[in-house]
Amino acid sequence: MMRLPWFEWRAPRTVAEAARILAGEGPRAMLIAGGTDLVPNMKRRHQSPKTLVSLRRVDELRKSNGALGAGVTLTALVASAQVRERYRALWQAAAQIATPHLRNMGTLGGNLCLDTRCTYYNQSHEWRQAIDFCLKKDGETCWVATASKRCVAVSSTDGAPALIALGARVKLVSTQGEREVALADLYRNDGIEYLTRRPDEILTEVAIPAGWSSSYWKLRRRGSFDFPVLGVAVAARLARDGTVEEARVALGAAASRPFLVDKAGEFLKGKRLSDEVIAEASTLIASRAKPMDNTDLDLYWRKDVAASFAGYALREVRGDDMGEMRRRIARQAL
């Protein structure tokens, strides 16, 4: 049995109080919302904070006043008719995260700040010690790319690529004030320092522009549980005749950060989503997917699948009924 290390528990009721605790405790403190990622990591000794600052009792983080509160549970997102209608890619991403039990606990903000993953990292302390620790935690070598000077652990959030495609922005709050950044700028392509959020900052809300048609497609081994090994999100503003006025394409689980495929958005602008345009755009999107051999399934197959999944997302944005394809993929992943 893996046990949690000893820690002090703090349960503030406001964002301001939580920010003061973080500022006072410094690097020894960590935020916890649902705990679905942090608690298992603590059991494996990936993180051993001396103080946990719980956000579960901060009601203001669950309110939506023109923006989504970061404390909204994934279950609440899936149940929201407004999210399903206006932000379909986010709704699809949230519905495919983990299991119903974990979605009941997990939050939007927690998913956006999810730790990066790697075959050599997401193991027990004893397992990692036996083979020698990796660069991400306690070691000096990346066992995936031994010549690499940086960690190549993979971004494992589903919500981020969907929201990046939708052009979302997030608010970060600390005792020093507030700042708002594009969600895409919240991430670094570094498996260890993967967030630009400072340790004393709290992600409080997510603002999403309206008017996008969007879609999110996820590749994983088991269709009812696993982390993504590929995520493709597409959002587009379409004219009445179907011409793409603006498009944004984001990839997840293909690097240490979710990222925009800018060239694909530029290529799609001004075009109608014909089969030929979709095929060319899908090839362009897949060319930016460069998976590493540190997650589930064969990396070369995962790269090949990227073009297919990009095509599915673009066809769904066009208005095609992709329900049977989704069901077929789900059956194959059981």
Q: Can you tell me about this structure?
A:
The protein starts with 7 loop residues before the first strand and ends with a helix. It has one domain: CO dehydrogenase flavoprotein, C-terminal domain (Enolase-like, domain 1, 2-Layer Sandwich). The chain is globular, with a radius of gyration of 20 Å. Helix 5 packs antiparallel against helix 9, helix 10 runs antiparallel to helix 11 and helix 11 runs antiparallel to helix 12. The protein has 334 residues and is α+β, with helices and mostly antiparallel strands.
Keywords:
334 residues; alpha+beta; Enolase-like, domain 1; 4-stranded antiparallel sheet; 13 helices; 11 strands; 33% helix; globular
Short overview:
The protein has 13 helices and eleven strands. With 334 residues, it is α+β, with helices and mostly antiparallel strands. The two termini are 28 Å apart.
